[in-house]
Amino acid sequence: MLTRRRMLTAAAALGAQWTVPAFAQENAQQKLKAVATFSILGDLVANVGGARADVATLVGPNSDAHVYSPTPADAKTLAQAKVVVVNGLGLEGWLTRLVTASGSKAVTVTASTGIKPRRMEDEHHGGQFVTDPHAWQSIANAKIYVTNIRDGLVKVDPDGRAAYAANATAYLAKLDALEADVKAAIERIPADRRRIITTHDAFGYFGAAFGMEFIAPQGVSTESEASAKDVAKIITQIRTQKIPAVFMENISDPRLMQQIARETGAKIGGTLYSDALSGANGPAATYIDMMRNNVREFAAALMS
Ligand code: ZN
Questions:
Q1: Which one of 46, 89, 209, 288 is CB 3.0 to 4.6 Å from 55, fit for a cystine?
Q2: What is the pTM of this model?
């Protein structure tokens, strides 16, 4: 019995060497292990990486990347990664410690490199100027993200240069089409109605790119709660400026917006996806779907 088992083991070992097709082994070995810090970035990396990359995301769908508590599993994922793609602009304050703790040797690619950062006075930080991290909400910026991701993947996996270049070019063409559609959709909304309240200040880059005004009781981060004073100020602003609609965000507690809507009579305009995608079956499972969903919600609330 023992002999027979040993023989079987030997045969299995031989089988493993001889029967697994060479291309399958190669594929498994060559897939580039990439990590993106949050779901929106994960989608961009997956589009550029295509079949060559295995993309893991740390902060998942419907979750808040501003205030994230990394798990031991995240450290393990990072330890195995060859490349980690981050947003930068102060979004991922929790990342440096995680990278150090994981012992990761991954190359870091900062997707926002080269964009023009939006600086704004933040009343939640004593009026000091803070950098708005939500650069992806401008599609022009997302295109810069894609070229940075392409160049970063080529750096860690030079053999994939042609594949990453082709994937990026194809995806950039989709972003061009998206940008034209969003521009046209916003232009159809009367200029004096293009004003919206959101929970936190996540749409500054979108507003600057497409000509819309966004006002939020919370600052550019979700770290600090909106104070009673912030909320009172917004309520006055909605009344005096006749702002038509308030929106919920998939990453924020909806109760604050519901309260503001009740007190002002402003319409609740549905859910926006600002800092995270929806789940796979939701309306914002990809970056492109997210942008289309948000614009649909703006138009539905502001044009009726
Ligand atoms: Zn945010």
A1: 46
A2: 0.88
